[in-house]
Amino acid sequence: MSGTSAATPTFAGMVSVINDALLSEGKPPVGFINPVLYKSTLHIGFDVTDGNNKQPGCPAGFPAVKGWDALSGFGTPIFDALETILRAG
Q1: Strand pairing partners for 46?
Q2: More confident site: 29 or 7
Q3: Residues 32, 42: contact at Cβ < 8 Å?
Q4: For the chain, which residues make up each domain, given as ranges?
Q5: pLDDT per residue over 53-83, tens digit each?
Q6: Cα–Cα distances in Å, from 18 out to 6, 21, 30, 43, 58?
């Protein structure tokens, strides 16, 4: 349980909670979120700047650095920030 195998369902769950709230308000779901995330000037989370996911199954690993990196992408999502961005659409 590391990397995308753990992060993807967690992130999808956050988006599902946001969709549920929107639908309960009579609004449409967020739909395809990539364009919204990439055009936003806000940050969906905090930037992971230290560490490496090196482990037996991934001997080289991916180093965390300032800005986008293979391990954390946009960073570790913070639900409130993600919701703000997706509601603004």
Answers
A1: 76
A2: 29
A3: no
A4: 4-88
A5: 787 776 777 777 887 766 567 778 899 999 9
A6: 19, 5, 8, 17, 33
Burial 37-70 (b: 16+ CB within 10 A, else e): eeebeeebbeebeeeebeeeeeeeeeebeeeebe
What would the two tokens of residue 8 be?
């993807």
Q: If you search the block for the tokens 């409130």, which residue do you land on?
A: 80
Residue 34 buriedness (CB in 10 A; 0-12 / 13-18 / 19+): exposed
Of 33, 40, 39, the residue nearest 16 (C-alpha)? 33
Threshold 0.85, pTM exceeds = no
